[in-house]
């Protein structure tokens, strides 16, 4: 895991520490993750934004912690991040980010997307981009589930980004 594109900086927090309990699985999962982060035709700004929409919908605090600074560096506006973090639709985000938000939200909440929502994002990403985009969503849903099931904590001193659901 440390020899992949994330370089020597990869820690064993987040899902990676969990993946070490099943090393062969972990190697495949992190390779898919590396491709999703660094090898797709999806622009980094849209990919990172989709990861944050995923993190917010799954309430994956660690995923948000890691990817919010990356998304901002890739060009996602702080006001967009604030709206998303608060659980609001980022209505003032650029049109392409709103298309991503609509697609991701519709897919995760309805378990499918309408033809209109698909066409809107497809016009931005094309065929290969759509395949890879859905792969990004699948991988980061896997990460979110791993973080949740194995109760992976935020690093010491980092406060939660959004409220946990009431039991």
TrEMBL record:
Residues 23-102 form the Carboxymuconolactone decarboxylase-like domain. GO terms for molecular function: peroxiredoxin activity. This is Carboxymuconolactone decarboxylase-like domain-containing protein. SUPFAM superfamilies: AhpD-like. PANTHER family: 4-CARBOXYMUCONOLACTONE DECARBOXYLASE FAMILY PROTEIN (AFU_ORTHOLOGUE AFUA_6G11590). Transmembrane segments: none annotated. The lineage of its organism: Bacteria, Pseudomonadati, Pseudomonadota, Alphaproteobacteria, Hyphomicrobiales. InterPro entries: AhpD-like, CMD-like.
């Amino acid at each position: 895991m440390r020899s992949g594109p994330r370089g020597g900086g990869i820690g064993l927090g987040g899902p990676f520490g969990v993946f070490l309990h099943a090393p062969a699985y972990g190697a495949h999962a992190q390779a898919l993750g590396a491709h999703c982060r660094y090898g797709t035709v999806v622009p980094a700004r849209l990919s990172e934004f989709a990861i944050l929409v995923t993190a917010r919908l799954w309430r994956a605090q660690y995923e948000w912690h890691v990817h919010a600074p990356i998304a901002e560096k890739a060009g996602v506006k702080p006001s967009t991040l604030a709206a998303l973090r608060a659980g609001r639709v980022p209505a003032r985000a650029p049109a392409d980010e709103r298309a991503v938000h609509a697609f991701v939200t519709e897919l995760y909440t309805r378990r499918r997307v309408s033809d209109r929502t698909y066409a809107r994002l497809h016009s931005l990403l094309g065929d290969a981009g759509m395949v890879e985009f859905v792969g990004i969503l699948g991988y980061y849903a896997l990460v979110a589930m791993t973080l949740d099931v194995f109760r992976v904590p935020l690093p010491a001193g980092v406060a939660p980004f959004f409220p946990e659901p009431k039991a």
